[in-house]
Structure formats: C-alpha cells, structure tokens
Amino acid sequence: MKYLLIFAVVYSCSAFAADKYIGDNSHTEVIFKINHLGFSTTYGRFTNVESELVYDAENPEKSTVSATIYSGSVDLGHDPKTDHIKAADFLNAEQFPKITFASTEVKSVAESQLEITGDLTIRKVTKPVILQVTINKIGKHPIYQSDAIGFSATGILDRTDWGVSAYAPMVGKEVTFNIEFEGTKTGDSYESKFAK
Fold first, then answer.
1. Residue 94: strand, helix, or coil
2. Is 114 helix (H, G, I), strand (E, B) or coil?
3. Does residue 37 sit in helix, strand or coil?
4. Which residues of 64-75 are buried (b: 16+ CB within 10 A; e: fewer)?
5. Which domains does the chain have, with CATH numbers?
6. Is the pLDDT of residue 1 over 60?
7. N or C, fewer C-beta in 10 Å, the chain?
8. What is the pLDDT of residues 96-105, one digit of tens each?
9. Mean pLDDT computed over every residue of the chain
10. What is the pTM of this model?
C-alpha cells in the first residue's frame, strides 16, 4: 500500500506538471506596424526568433514565456528601409544584436486567453510590455509527431520608451505587434524535417 501511495503522489505531480515547448523558428512570427508620416502604415517582421513556452494547463499562472529576437533579422520588404532600421538611429543592430523578452506575470482572463506581462529589452533598455494571448491549439503535431502548442499574441508599445526615437512623432511612436508561436516539446523545426 505504501508503494502504491508513493506512485500515486508521483503520478499526480507529473501529470499536472508544466510542459516546455521550444519554438519552431519557421512558424514563429514577430510582425509589427508603424504609422509613416500619417500617409501610410509600414509593416515589418523579424525572421530569426528563438523562443520557449513553459505552459501549465492546470495552473496557467505558473506558465512562462521567453524569447530572443535577433535585431539583424528585421525585414521591411525594401532593402534601403531595412538597412535604415538596422542602423544606429533605430535598432542599432550591430551594437545591440539581441532583443529579449522574459515574462514576469501570467494571468488567465478566459478560457484559452492569457494576459502576459514581461520585460522587453531593446538597446539595453528594459521596460514592461503586456501581451494579450490566445492559446490556439494543444495536441500531437501531424508532421513532427510530437506534442505541440500554438498561440497568437498582440501588443502595443511606445518605441521612444526604449530610446528608439528617430523621427518621432512624424514616424509614429506607437508600434503595434503580432506574434505567432508554434512549438514542440522536442524542438522540431522545418529545417530538422525538410532541410537537406
């Protein structure tokens, strides 16, 4: 009986433990938009993102998210504009090659809906941001055949809070961003499956 009780306790703890998912860079998107002089909206994205989600389905508040975004991977779809945003008066990607995010608080606001507060560091300046997150799906990945999760997130920040102040406010201070995350427990990726 004693061993049975020990087994039950161990099983109970493991069954509800948080699960760690490693982001698939090929299906993890960080997309942003910013007003340009009032005439148009400029869109951009980062193409190189390392990310990790530790998700506790039973206690979402115990979940964590972290990410490293490589500044030099920014892409505005137009080479001169892309080169400019990498330059010293914007991201200064050469001196500050990494943008990082680490969650500090997770709140469950509805079924499959989370509010995640975290520290965002750009150009060595750290400020809090809030993400509104929807857990899209949890289940077996049909291609990788491993446990997977996906979420969508949105947020807004004032770039001047991080010292990225060039041409503000003519070029909008407010940056709206969308994040799409897809990850597996085994860290599978498009490259690991299809690249030769």
1. coil
2. strand
3. coil
4. bbbbbbebebbb
5. 18-187 (2.40.128.110)
6. no
7. C
8. 999 999 999 9
9. 92
10. 0.89
